[in-house]
Amino acid sequence: MQIEILKSKIHRVKVTGADLNYIGSITIDEALLEAANIFEGEKVSIVNINNGERFETYAIPGPRNSGVITLNGPAARKVQKDDIIIIIAYALATMEEAKNFKPSVIFPNEENNSLT
């Protein structure tokens, strides 16, 4: 049997933009992606603290150390600039794997989305 477990989490970052005319996805500062162990193209869940919206999209890298968090395409309708969101990625694991697995969870600075 396999279960779905938390693999990665970027806890409480500020949305820096929403681009309705882009084809889709969420653009995330490459440094944040690496720190959270989230891969380009990986499916992520987004939880919007400000309005309670929950939705899924995929991650694309933005400029390193820029603090960029931009929702693109239809997802742009679910956020506003300066909303606080949580970005979550899950993985499938066997029960045995899940017992010892430790997720990558990061807590960036909410004001500028930096790791320091």
UniProtKB/TrEMBL annotation:
Binding residues for substrate: T57, G73, P74, A75
Active site annotation, chain numbering: S25 (schiff-base intermediate with substrate), Y58 (proton donor)
Essential cofactor(s): pyruvate
Record's keyword terms, sorted: Autocatalytic cleavage, Cytoplasm, Decarboxylase, Lyase, Pantothenate biosynthesis, Pyruvate, Schiff base, Zymogen
Keyword match Lyase: yes
Cellular localization per UniProt: Cytoplasm
Primary localization class, coarse: cytoplasm
UniProt cross-references to Gene3D superfamilies, sorted A to Z: 2.40.40.20
Modified residues (Pyruvic acid (Ser)): S25
One Pfam short name: Asp_decarbox
PTM per Swiss-Prot/TrEMBL: Is synthesized initially as an inactive proenzyme, which is activated by self-cleavage at a specific serine bond to produce a beta-subunit with a hydroxyl group at its C-terminus and an alpha-subunit with a pyruvoyl group at its N-terminus.
Pathway: Cofactor biosynthesis; (R)-pantothenate biosynthesis; beta-alanine from L-aspartate: step 1/1
Cofactor note: Binds 1 pyruvoyl group covalently per subunit.
EC code: 4.1.1.11
GO molecular function, one term: aspartate 1-decarboxylase activity
Catalytic activity of the protein: L-aspartate + H(+) = beta-alanine + CO2
Known function: Catalyzes the pyruvoyl-dependent decarboxylation of aspartate to produce beta-alanine.
Assembly and oligomerization: Heterooctamer of four alpha and four beta subunits.
Family: Belongs to the PanD family.
Name the record gives this protein: Aspartate 1-decarboxylase
Species, as recorded: Flavobacterium agricola
Protein's gene: panD
